[in-house]
Write a structure and sequence with these properties.
Distance between the termini: 98 Å
Order of helices and strands: HHH
Helix content: over 70%
GO biological process, one term: mitochondrial respiratory chain complex IV assembly
Shape: rod-shaped
Number of strands: 0
Length: about 70
C-alpha cells in the first residue's frame, strides 16, 4: 500500500516537472506581444557610449611623415 502512495507522488512530481516549463513557455512565447514586451523591458547588454574613432591609415601615414620631417 505504501509503495503505491509513493508511486503516485513520483507521478505527480514528474507531471509538474514536465507541465510547468511547457506551460510557461506557451504563456511567454506563445503570444508574440508578451515576448516582445518582456524583451523590451529588459536590457541585458548595455553598451558604453561610443568614443572618438582612431585615425585612418592615411592620417597615420601623414602624422608619421610629419614627425619624421621635424
Amino acid at each position: 500500500m505504501a509503495a503505491s502512495k509513493w508511486g503516485a507522488l513520483e507521478v505527480f512530481k514528474f507531471a509538474c516537472y514536465i507541465s510547468i516549463p511547457i506551460g510557461m513557455t506557451y504563456a511567454v512565447a506563445g503570444n508574440a506581444n508578451n515576448l516582445e514586451a518582456i524583451i523590451k523591458s529588459r536590457s541585458y547588454v548595455v553598451y558604453p557610449p561610443e568614443g572618438p574613432r582612431p585615425p585612418s591609415a592615411e592620417e597615420m601615414a601623414a602624422r608619421i611623415k610629419k614627425e619624421q620631417q621635424k
